[in-house]
Design brief:
123 residues; alpha+beta; Nuclear Transport Factor 2, Chain: A
Length: 123
């Protein structure tokens, strides 16, 4: 799957949308490197490893309505070992509560690092 931008699409649609932590962790084994680093912002340290990332997803999902899900704004794109996808988060059919993009670095057929760029509302 390394030459396909599907890794990043599956990261959002299969992992981040799944509210079952056990199933999510199993999916991570096929998509994320064991020592994958997730960079949520430039201010904080990386969150490293599937269990730590899974715990973060559970924590975030507890703050969202059950209907919230990630939706792609279009297919992910790839340039050698870098993948990019833009997304919306919210209730399908309604205006998104959040938008952003993910950039992934791929190594050995899995996501090695994932960088979140959240679009902040105007101040």
């Amino acid at each position: 799957m390394e030459n396909s931008a599907k890794l990043l699409e599956h990261s959002l649609l299969v992992i981040w949308n799944d509210r079952n932590a056990e199933r999510r962790l199993q999916a991570m084994e096929n998509i994320y490197a064991d020592d994958m680093a997730f960079y949520e912002s430039n201010e904080g340290p990386a969150i490293v490893g599937n269990q730590a990332i899974n715990d973060l997803i559970s924590k975030l999902q507890q703050q969202w309505p059950l209907e919230f899900e990630f939706q792609l704004n279009g297919p992910a794109s790839i340039n050698h070992h870098v993948q990019h996808v833009a997304w919306n988060l919210g209730i399908p059919g309604q205006a998104p509560e959040a938008t952003g993009m993910d950039i992934a670095i791929i190594k050995d057929g899995k996501i090695k690092s994932l960088h979140l760029f959240l679009n902040l509302p105007p101040a």
